[in-house]
Amino acid sequence: QVQLVESGGGLVQAGGSLRLSCLASGQTLSTNAMGWFRQAPGKEREFVGAINWSGSVTHYADSVKGRFTISRANAKNTVYLQMNSLKPEDTAVYYCAAAAAGFLATMAERYDYWGQGAQVTVSS
Asked: What is the pairing mode between strands 34-39 and 92-99?
């Protein structure tokens, strides 16, 4: 059974940066696309970004494009979400997810495994 564990969340001032990590255990995910989603209080879960199995292709939501960067280290079974120029509206619980396929997807339904989430709070 695959387990995903996010870390690196916390409280940061607007304009600051955070890096989330997602460590997978149970099986290697080097052939799986990985995604990041977030859910703010009272809102639905939304797509943040995704990366294909090799790390050669990434895709981001318009709201984070140019500020967030996804990368992966397959040898470490880890995916990262670097968040720069953070805004109060980025406040949410951030989830990493693993897809069954190697090509990236934006819809949550395409992802089979989910982490427990990491809280990111951006103060104004």
From this structure: antiparallel
